[in-house]
Structures are given as C-alpha cells and as structure tokens.
Please model this.
Amino acid sequence: MTDLTTRSAAHAHGGGSRMAAAPGIEAHDVKPVNAKAERGLYASRQKIYAKRARGRYRSVKWLLMAVTLGVYYVLPWLKWHRGASLPDQAVLLDFPNRRFFFFFLEIWPQEFYFVTGLLVLAALALFLVTAIAGRVWCGYFCPQTVWTDMMIAAERFWQGDRNARMLLDKQRWGPAKLYKKSMTHLTFLLISLLTGGAFVLYFDEAPRLTRQLLTGEAPAIAYLFIGIFTITTYLLGGIAREQVCTYMCPWPRIQGALLDADSYLVTYKPHRGEPRGHLRKAASPERRGDCIDCKACVVVCPMGIDIRNGPQLECIQCALCVDACNDIMAKIGRPPGLIDYDTFHNLEAAEHKQKQPRIRIVRPRTVLYAALFCVVGLVMLWGVSRRTTLELNVLPDRNPLFVQLSDGGFRNGYTVKILNKRYDTRHFSIGVAGLDGASIKIVGMESDANPVIPVAADTLRELRVFVSVPKRAADQIAAGSTPIVFQISDRQDATRTSRDSQFRKP
Amino acid sequence: MAADKEIDAVTGVETTGHDWDGIKELNKPLPKWWLYTFYACIVWSVGYWIAYPAWPRLGGYTRGVLGYSQRATVTAEIDKARAAQGDLRKQIATVPLDGIKQNQDLLRFAMAGGAAAFATNCAPCHGRSAQGAKGYPNLSDDDWLWGGTLADIQATIENGIRSGEKKERRSDMPKYGIENLLKPEEIDDAAEFVLSLSGRSTDAAAVEKGRKTFAEQCAACHGADGKGKLDMGAPNLTDPIWLYGGSKPEIMESISTGRGGVMPAWAGRLDPVTIKELAVYVHALGGGK
Model:
C-alpha cells in the first residue's frame, strides 16, 4: 500500500515541477517502472514513456532497422533461375510441394537436417556475439526490438515525445485525443498488416500472390496468416512491448550463462559517477561524481529500467542510455562514456585504480564458441557440397514376403522411389545385381524388357517393381534373405546410384 | 459503500468485509480481462443459439437461422471430392483397361482406388495383401483359375464364381467319394497319379492304376496332361500352387468331396469404375498376364 501511495504521489506532481540537475539541464521525474524492484507481480503494468534519444547508437539502430526491414521486405522478391518447371523465387518455402528453396540450395523434406544445421549455426553465432558484446541481438536485431522501435516512432509521430504523451494520457477524452490515439493505433495496424503481408510472400510466388492479395483473389490461408501476423505484431510490438522481453522471452534467462567478466556490456561506471547528485554552481565538480542524477538514461530507456543499478535481466543493451548520457556529459563539460560499453573486469580495475583497459576478446569461452561454429559450419559445407541430385530408395514388401510362382520360382515385390533433384527430366534404366537369373517387371511397363523410366525435374517417382527368380535359379540360393542391389543409371550421362535390399524365399 | 472499505494492514489489500473467527478474506476480484472475456462469451452464446442449431425440443431441436448442418457439410464435401476426381473417374470409365495401365496418372489413381476398394470388399477372403488362404485363391501369384488377363479379372469380379448370376463362372467337380462315383482305392490311386504330375509320387504301381482313372474321370476338365483349362476354371495340377493343399490326404479329400468356392458377383454392388480400378489393381499385384 505504501508503495502504491508513493507511486501515485510521484505521479501527481510528475511532469509539472521542473527541477534542474544542473544549470540548463532538466532532472527528469521518472521511475524505472520495469525494474524488478518496481514491478509487483500483482500490480498492473506501468506504461513506459520512452523519450527520444539522439546520438551514435541511435543512428546505428536506425541504420540497422533499415537494413533488417530491407532484408525482410526485399528477400521474397529476389530471383534465382532454376529452369522452366521450377519456381524462380530465390527464397521460397514451398509447402504444397514440400520444398524449401534458398538461392543455390534446395531442401527436400528428408534433407531437413540442413535447416537444423542452419539453426545450430545461428545459435552458436548468437552465443559468440553474446560472449563478446552482450545482448547485441536483443538490442539491435531482434524483430521484437525492431518492430517496437518502429511502433514507438509511430507513437511519437502522432502524439509527440514523452511529456506530450504523458499529458495526452492524463487528458480527458476529446476529439483531439481521440484523433491522435486512433491515428496511432491505425498506424500500428498498418505496420502490422504490412508485416504479415510480407511474411506470406515467403510461401508463394511473391508477384503473383501480391497481385492476388490486392485483387482479393488470394487463397484463404494467405489472409488467415496475414491476419494472425497482423494481430500478433500489433499486440507484441504495439501493446505488450517490453513485457515480451521481460516475461515471455527465454533468451534473457539464457544469456546470463554466456556472459563473463570480459564481455562488453552497456554499463554505468559507478567509480566515475558516484557520489551522484545535482550539480550546483557552488559545488566544485572535483568533490563529487559525474552523475548529476538527471535521469536522462532512465527516461530514454524503452525497457523502463535504470542502468545505474547494474546489469539487469530486463536490459536489452540497446545503448540508448549511452547516447542520452553522452549528450549530458557534453553539456556539463565532462568526458563522455559515463555509461558505455565496458567489461566487468575493467570496471573492477578502475574501481581499484589499477591500470586499464584490458581487452580480452580471445578467451576460452569465445574460442570454444568460435571453434564449434567452425566445426558445424564445415560439416554443413561438406554436407551441402556432397548433396546428391539422385537418390534411390527401395522398400521390400512386408506382406507377402514372397510369392511362389507356378513354375516353382519365387517373386518379391518392392516399392522403388527414384528422387531426381536436378532441374531437368531424366531417363533411367533399372537393374538388380546379386541374384542370378532374376528378372524385373515394373507395373505399368510390363511389356518392356528393358524399360526406360522418365522422372520429371525435381520430383520423386514411385514404382512398383517385381523381381522374379525361376525355379532352377531359386534352388541355387539359400532359404531366407539374399542380399541384392538395385541400381539405376541415367541413360544420358551414365550417372548411377544403387541401394541395398533383400530377396526372400522360404 | 466506498466509506466501508477496509484495508488489510499486512498486505495493503482491501478486504471483502467477511469475518470468520477473526480471519478476514482479502478482496481479490477476477482479472478484468478474464471477466470481460467471460461476459463476451455469454453475449456470443446468445447469438450462437440464434444462428446455429442449439436447444433440444420435443422431437427435434432448434435449427438456427443459418441452417447449418454437419451432415450437409459432409455431403457437400464428399460431392466436392467426387467432383475433383470427376475427370479421372470419367477417363477410367472410358479408357480401356490396358490403356489405364499405360497412363501414369490413371494408373496411380486406379491403383489407389483399387487398393481402397480391395481392402473393403475383397480382403476379408483374399487377405489384406491378396495372399489368399486355403480355399481362397492367392491373387498375387501367376496361377489363375479363370484367367489372369485384365479382361478375365474384370469378368470374374463382375460376375462372380458360382454366384447364381446369369454370367457366373461355374465349374462343378463331382463328389467322387461322397456320391460313390469312385471306390476308395481308386481315389487313392488317382491321388497318387496327381502327385506324380508334379514329380512327388512314391508308388509307381499306384500311379499306373491311377493314370487310367484320371484319363476317364479327370482329364475332361483338367486336361490329359493335368495342366488344367482356364475356360473351365479347372486348376493346373502340375504346378506347386494348391488352392486346397497339395499333400496326398488333401488331394484325396478334394477328389472325394469335390471342390467349389463361391465368390459374389460385384456388378451392381460396385460401380463399373471401381470394378475397373479393382481389375487394374489385382492385375498389378504381380501375377497379371
């Protein structure tokens, strides 16, 4: 209860009174509402009004936002020629035909281990980057961050910066508020719609699907997924925002295990900043720390925390507080970097007035992650370079295992699958080795003694194949299973492949 | 009421005012989102009652203004599936049987349809993989009673065997023992001769005696050489495939009691397209001629 009263009291006079942290520098009346100490499990969420930051890291973030969004929206439009009968979209997840296309690589369902490998590589890269420079992914690249950033920018466009937004929220509902709020949420929805709209383009031919979407002729599943992505983007990026990172995402819990004292993190340097306090003309700067407690770092934080409390699970390391603080340092004539990327080791060294700085990017942890990354990467390269364009699968019939023929011989049935992963139609002949006197019959090509089997570009052809052995030859082979080898060879370039199987007789 | 609000000192939460032996209940209302979702569901359900089938009535139920019915939906879906197959089924109806086998698409469709129809209609006797059983022919080998060409198989499926239909396939093997057409020792000798046809006889004298009986009684249908006659449904007695068993007691039993299995005529039970699919499927099991 006490907590509640103080909080509402702080709210009551917030915004109104303007204290100065230093001459000409406003001390913001802001609480790190999303810091662990501030958020009760049974209290409702306190809205974060992040103030606009300007500076080096903000610029980097704008740039990376443009790059990541650019990749997201441009990728489905890139072309990659694969021959007449195949899609020419560079990146296409073709579910109806069960094929994934990534530029030069095509993945059949049974080759899904390539995707697994790609995910393992991505995870290891994430480990490595995190060990070196903390939550770079969270701060700059994560879709949740990028989209939330975009939503906050949209909010700022319609409602103004922090103070204006706070004021607007306190206002009674009227035409102006209604207009600003509804335009904001319409923009959120538009962003979300475009997000979902681009997502479905990865699953069908982009130009055709776009045309269909615009004319209302796209398949219902496309609209359904656009709807799902519109709603989730709107809820996660527009409404839930920092709660996704704080409560829903497992990564903040995992990344703590990857960091060590040599990882570069966005940190406040207490040895420089403390004791903090408002800067007054009378007081000499030498006697006190550089932190003037203006809370510029808190007020720009999209996660609603105070970086000066040290590393926290909620911090996504977006470095906007670095920009905010450097701005203030310049104004009060102090060197920048009171909040900066630094390692725990360096902080400790500075605390004890030891020599600094120490940079240790190469250390057992990073070497391990890099080595694992290289190993998995090499295995992937090896796998991709050895990817065959021709495969043969043979499944012997389980029931009946064999059939006795009227001449006293035996016959076995097989389901044979020929996988032609090349982008042209190929013609194969089939044979079986390891069985004297065996003859092959293919259902649908019975009349042909030496059938030519056409297999269309990038398809699988399934055949029913019977292998028969006449009585005299059958008497020569042992009862039970006899190993045999199915072979196919391309009639044009003589590429061949084979598959072991069994011939059974009683 | 607001004036009566009592705040619990320890937790800072409002109490409900209920007091049990000095223990007071904290007021922890349902979360708003939950409560409003619940109310929304109530409103929704009223609309649902009006739109969809909902309340039971004597001898029926309220149908709802949308006229929704699961049965109608299923029927519509089946019709749609039929329509989707329509072109292929039409082709199968018109294309001759060997034409179906040559066409990759038709063959795949016919094999799938044939497999389904076989599992439902034929598997109870002939077995799941058409491997047959004693008295029920194996359809995957190359030994046929009534012919193994596509046309023969189709005719057998349509008309059945001893089915009582007009165009049924029928052969009648006399009950030589039961009806006293042959003496027991003659049956014994004939069986020994039949064994000799597949090189399994052990008694040359009996074979010679049996040869005469066979020529008089059996050769008319099974042929002088014992190789059977497809147009009469008389089985080949020289191969190693036996419908009722190939041991001497089993052969004697066959001679003594006669044999004649029954297969129903499927024309009229199955549509012509399904019968054609079945013929293609059985022919493709490996033994087709």
